Give the backbone structure.
Amino acid sequence: MGMLSFDVTCPYCLRENAVLEAFSEKLRGNNPDLIDVAFKCRSCQKAGIVVVDFKNQRAMPFKISQQGYNIVIPSDSNKYKILEVIPEIKAPSAPENTPERAAKFFIESKDDFQRDRYETCVMNCRKVIDISTKVLMGEDAKDEKLSQRISMLFAKGKITEDMKDWAHIVRIDSNGAVHSDEEFTKEEAEQILGFTEVFLMYSFTLPEMIKKRQEAKDSNQ
C-alpha cells in the first residue's frame, strides 16, 4: 500500500518538513473536478483538509495511493493542484500600533512558540518588553535595568499593578537575556507570550484607540 502526502507547511504546528499524510477523500459537492482530502500531520497529530483539483487526471489521488503508489502533491510528477488548505495557514502578527522593532520580535516569538522553540520564544519576548519599555519611557529609561523600568512604569501609571506583578511571576522582568542553562516548559513560554501580548495591547493599542475615539468625538462637536 502506498501513501498520499502533501508538500506544504502544517497549518497547526507550522513545521515546513512535516509529513501530512492523507487518510480519506471525497468529491466536493457536485463538482467532478474537486475533492476534499483529509490529512493528519505526523508531527502534531492534528487533522485537516486539502482541496485538490484533479481535473484531467485518471483517478482521485488517494485511491491511486491505495493501489501501492506513493504520491506527493504538489509535484512535477503529477498534475494534481492544491486549491486550499483548511484550516488556513495564518501568519503571526503583533497587536496594532506596536513599535516596528518590537512588533518584529513579537512575531518571531509567536513563530518560535508554534515551532516548540520555547527558550528562543522567551528570549524574543524579553526583547519586545525591553524595546517597548524604552519607547514608553524615552529619556527616563537611561541605563535602568528592565526590572526597574517596569517598576518605574507602574509608578508613572503606565501599567497596572497586576501587570507589574505578572511580569515578576512569569520572570519577564529578570535582568539580561535567557541564559544557556535556563529552560522553559511550553506552559511557561505560553504565559510569557501571553503577558507580552497583553503588555503591547495595553501600552500601544488601547491608547491609540482612545486617542482616535476622542479625536472623532471632538470633530463632531
Observations:
- The first strand starts at residue 4 and ends at 6.
- The chain has six helices and six strands.
- The mean pLDDT is 89.
